[in-house]
Amino acid sequence: MISFGAGEGLKDRMLLKALRDSGLEVKYYPLMRARPCSRSRAPRRRMTTARHWELKPTFRAGASAAAADVSEAPRLFLMAGNTLGGFDPLDQMRHVSDCLHEGDLLVLDARIREENPPDPTEAQKRFVFAPLASAGLTQEDGELRFTENSDDRHEGLYLLTRRFHASKDLTMLASGRQIHIERGERIFLNFRYRFTRQAFRWLVSEHAGLQVIAEIPSSDGRFVTIVCSK
Fold first, then answer.
1. Domain definitions of the chain by residue range
2. Which of 36, 51, 220, 225 is the most exposed place for a label (fewest CB within 10 A)?
3. pLDDT less than 70: residues of the chain
4. How far is CA 37 from the centre of its chain?
């Protein structure tokens, strides 16, 4: 089993237990993000006239393809916890599809966009702000803004961005060095894609060219899991 964006592996362990309980011998290849946004300690400055700062997660280049090459067939690929939403979904789905061979299975889920998305909760705001809090800032130092826009490349793709706008001159401490932020500067705190159910199915079947075997909505309707093959 090859897991993309395994994180703490909570969902992976449940699937591994089910596979082993059924009598299968399973080899497990977890692939992590190199620098998750919630733990990132080194903001990287994007050189633009808008003086825009960015905290962004990265995925180890080529790791998924390498794991697919060394593992034995048949392989089960897992992308759980709305991992797909943390990347450009069009690029990521094609990349994942290229890793699959005939006989392999892919299980992935996605967060389904609600018709009237609720405002972020205080807990969500604290989670998003965590990288800046670790660098010495507080939410009183500026404004945390959540903005959702549709992606015009295909109907049903929505990009949710989170930015912090400094209301005064600030100083962050990151990796042992001071970083000065002027009033009005913006810090980009990553993004998340959300999908309509139809757009998620299109991504998997038509865009990535995979065959949908099963489509399973969560009990609350917030997530959909798709099982597919090459």
1. 2-229
2. 220
3. 32-71
4. 10
* Whole-prediction pTM: 0.79
Percentage of the chain modeled with pLDDT above 90: 60
What are the two backbone dihedrals, phi and then psi, of residue 85, each rounded to the nearest 5 degrees?
-70, -15
Cis preceding linkage at 30, omega within 30: no
CATH no. for 2-229 = 3.40.50
